[in-house]
Amino acid sequence: MFTGIVECMGKVVEFASLDTSESGGNGSSLTISGAEQVLSDCHLGDSIAINGTCLTVTEFTKDTFKVGCAPETLSRTNLGQLKPGDAVNLERALAAGHRFGGHFVQGHVDTTAEIISVTPDGNSIWFKFR
């Protein structure tokens, strides 16, 4: 579970469509840098949301981490279009028994929608989806 509140911004180091390394699992992988803030208490197998999508850490250093990306994840998110240098939103999964701001968010994609209108409203924006 996540709060939906971005903890920090990271940068894409690499998107590998076929990662044959042990941590790549012979599938697609994404490596992110600038992530020291969300890696301070990280363990292999932990969940980190990238642009709101829950993904599993398969490798990490002090500042970078790698996640695997299933074909369904790539077809329903923007993760497959990311290029080196692109900024991404990062958030660690919630720890039980701690206060949190925001909401309970699973980070799992339920569906996709088409944006049919965008309307500015003062300091916010209304989106209409189909």
Radius of gyration: 16 Å
Instruction: Spell the H/E element sequence.
Output: EEHEEEHEEE
Question: Averaged pLDDT, please?
Answer: 89
Describe the main β-sheet briefly.
6 strands, antiparallel, barrel
Helical residues, percent: under 10%
The general outline is globular
Strand order, main sheet: write it out.
1-2-5-4-3-6
The proportion of residues in beta strands is 35-45%
Would you count the extended β strands for me? 8
Terminal residue distance: 26 Å
Number of helices: 2
Structural class, by secondary structure, is mainly beta
Low-confidence spans: pLDDT under 50, at least 5 residues?
none
List keywords for this structure.
single chain; 130 residues; mainly beta; six-stranded antiparallel beta barrel; two-stranded antiparallel sheet; 2 helices; 8% helix; 42% strand; globular
Question: What does this 3D model show about the protein?
Answer:
- The protein has a six-stranded antiparallel β-barrel. It has a two-stranded antiparallel ribbon with strand order 7-8.
- The protein is mainly beta.
- It has two helices and eight strands; from the N terminus they run E-E-H-E-E-E-H-E-E-E.
- The chain has helices at 36-39, 71-76; strands spanning 8-19, 27-33, 47-50, 53-60, 65-69, 87-92, 115-121, 124-129.
- Strand 4 and strand 5 (65-69) form a beta hairpin.
- Helices cover 8% and strands 42% of the residues.
- The protein is globular and about 45 Å long.
